[in-house]
From TrEMBL:
Cofactor mode of binding and number, as noted: Binds 1 Ca(2+) ion per subunit.
Gene Ontology terms for molecular function: metal ion binding; protein-glutamine gamma-glutamyltransferase activity
UniProt name for this protein: protein-glutamine gamma-glutamyltransferase
Domain Transglutaminase-like: 309-406
Gene: ANNU_1
Amino acid sequence: MSHWYANIVPGWVNRWISPPRPVNPYRAIRPASENTAEADAILTVQSVDLCLAENNDEHKTDHFFAAKEALIVRRGDPFRLRIHFNRSYNPTRDAISFIFTVADENKPSPGHGTLVGLVPRDGIDYLGDPLEWAAGIESHEDKALTVLIKPAVTCPVTEWKLDVDTKLLSDGSKTFSIPVPIYVLFNPWCPDDQVYLPDHDQRKEYIMHDTTLIWRGSYNRMRPSVWKLGQFERHVLECSIKLIGTVGRIPAAYRGDPVRVARALSAAVNSVDDDGVILGNWSEDFSGGTAPTKWVGSTEILQQFYKTQKPVKFGQCWNFSGVLTTIARTLGIPSRIVTCYSAAHDTQGSLTVDIFIDQNNKKLDAETTDSIWNYHVWNEVWMQRPDLGIGPYGAYGGWQAVDATPQEPSDSMYRVGPASVVAVKNGEILRPFDCGFVYSEVNADKVYWRYNGPYQPIKLLRKDTLAIGHLISTKAVLKWEREDITATYKYEEKTDEERNMMLKALKQSGHAFSRYYLNDTFNDVEFDMSLKDDIKIGESFTVIVKITNKSKDNTHVASGQLNCDAVLYTGTNAEEVKSMPFELELKPEMSEFVRMEVQFDEYFKKLTSQAAFNISCAAKVKATDYEYYAQDDFRVRKPDIKFTFQGKIVSQLPVDVIVRLTNPLPIPLKKGMFYIEGPGIEKALRFKVRNQYIYCNGPIST
């Protein structure tokens, strides 16, 4: 053999592709036909006990469904093997080597860390540098040898194959291939791992918990929904490992870098560039697939993708985020779901959301490419960022924003992050990856422009520095409640620090709108639009605009129009519900009110799946050049679903559950269906409501 490493471990170069042999999942056993006379001379492996129960428990991987038939360990910590030979091991004449290769690597290489050869040292007191693989003999009893093996804390996170080579120091060798999969994961328990999370409760929440909360709705009517992550369920581990290589296309040598893994997964979870996990759909037509609102967990989505290798139809931001959280926790990267209310989608990198209004006070969709979503859901993953070094605000490690919802391309692919939350807060928008985009999502200024035609100058109507980035939320650690993390993304509104960071970011932007905006000012006019926010679907609601004349001497006349439009949660208008023009006289230092009531029969046929509306007010003060435009998001609240458990809940035993909902509408409901997820439920349960019609204020139960 011509390879330089041939004399270290002879004869193993092509053995990693040998077909698997039938095997007891807890012990790899050499077939009896392979026990020849030569084995009496050469130390021969008869079986290898992978100590699955013991290892998976110590590495906190015993919850995985795959742990029944695979070894799942976390890098940087040792795992145990018990090797049974045909005779007693003699260190003076026998040599043992462990050969690890990345399972899907065509050309494994020691230089790339995808092929590792280990010779165990005597004893386990020191297993070497954390950055290196190591093996040590723990005990030697008759024909059995117990060995500890420690994967390097930077090794690729993937599936590995293991061969055990034995030879006489004088001559001759044998190989025993272990066909049982070995999965090596990130290790947030290990201080030397880049994803190390020191807090015990946070590790329990962000790695081990398999159910979470996702906040949706609008900033004035937040609504949590339960999401079953299911990271330990059948095929989820295998699917997550496969995604890194086949869809994420990360070379095996780089699969140990959590920054590259997180960035690749943010693209792999959506289907735009690479036929990833979920096909997005922001229309109201979900024929041929499942409506995003009907998914209640990640498990069924990932299992379907693993089976078909085709994008699952359909998803929106919270589905992308839920699935990405599942994959990250599966791989060992601490992750949480984050909701930002009134989140900006800045398409031009201006750090402003630019809204263009025509002469009829209607938003120009063709010119208005930016938008404000009622809410947007993304992820945070926890890791250090040695690639960013140390900045003026310290290190950039900790929580990193990652977004799998396909919005804008980043380096030619639809993905976002990982963006250091520390960098975002401090306006360092040029830091990789996509800090500027995330900064706009949480802290852009909303700017209204009057558009008078392609050859006319645009008129700056109004700026709103408080419109973007409200109530940034995540599930609290070990509590079923909301934790507000707004302060981690931005300084408090109206403070000098917040404005200074905005100006710092704008100066780095270089966009035409941002430069124009910096050099202009607005008149000080007081319009106050309010709306009672606790409106249950089926009830009417009233929009109120208070207009105040702050002049001590002059009477003014204000005219304008109130509009109510049904919208998708992305801020895109679906259909007009109602509009009302107004004109009124404002006496000096007096206030007047404009009221528009919207009845149920005016809006119910135009409701979108999110039950969301956009309320806008356009006004002009006559005899002046002053114009005003403002808008706000609003949603009607859907009724609560109540669970009642019959009797005591005991693990592994059936339990009767009554699920009840009361119809709040003045019209009957038809075709009722309940979707129920929970621990151990691989596929969401679907229950049709027996009654064909559920009348007004009538109960629905199953």
